[in-house]
Amino acid sequence: SDCAFFVADETGFSRTGSREARFESWNELIASGRAEEIVWAKIKNPQRAIEKAVRCYCQDSSYLVDLCRQTIVFESVHDLNSCLRQILDDEDVDVMRVKNRMDT
User: Fold this and answer.
1) Cα–Cα nearest to 99, from 75, 68, 65
2) CA angle 57, 60, 65 (to 5 degrees)
3) CB-hemisphere CA count at 13 Å for 70?
4) Up-side HSE of residue 1: CA atoms within 13 Å toward CB?
5) What is the 3-state secondary structure (H, E, C) of 15-83?
6) CA-CA distance, 15 to 9, in Å (whole number)?
7) Residues paired with 6 in a beta bridge
8) Which tens digits make up the pLDDT trace of 27-36?
9) CB 98 within 8 A of CB 84
10) Which residues fall within 8 angstroms of residue 76, CB to CB, at 6 or more apart?
11) Cα separations (Å) of 80 from 3, 20, 36, 37, 100?
12) What is the reported pTM?
């Protein structure tokens, strides 16, 4: 299975010079030694997390489940399922919730 990640050069721009989203295959990035070009998600700013907990969750920070988000693009449901299974099977990862946006 394969998936795609957002990539950029060291300046934060894609190779075309724009900030438009550009996704490349995980397998191709690994094979070409370019995995360092993946733009990994940053952790939410602590001030914003506190603000959200106070405003939206009555000061209950246990509801904060989006402290770090990563976009991964899949070509098929099979590839998505395969990746999700690997994440769920990882002993170092605690998945708190899976939001299914494919349901209508």
Assistant:
1) 65
2) 75
3) 13
4) 16
5) CCCCCCCCEEEHHHHHHCCCHHHECCCCCCCHHHHHHHHHHHCCCCHHHCCCCCCCCCECCCHHHHHHH
6) 6
7) 23
8) 999 999 998 8
9) yes
10) 1
11) 8, 23, 22, 22, 11
12) 0.63
In order of 17, 34, 37, 42, 45, the CA distances from 10 in angstroms are: 12, 12, 8, 15, 22
Main-chain dihedrals φ then ψ at residue 24, nearest 5 degrees:
-130, 150
Backbone φ and ψ for 36, nearest 5 degrees, come out as -65, -10
- Convert the pLDDT of each residue in 2-44 to its tens digit: 899 988 765 555 445 555 668 899 999 999 999 888 888 888 8
- For residue 12, give the DSSP letter: S
Helix (H) or strand (E) holding 4, with range, is strand 4-6
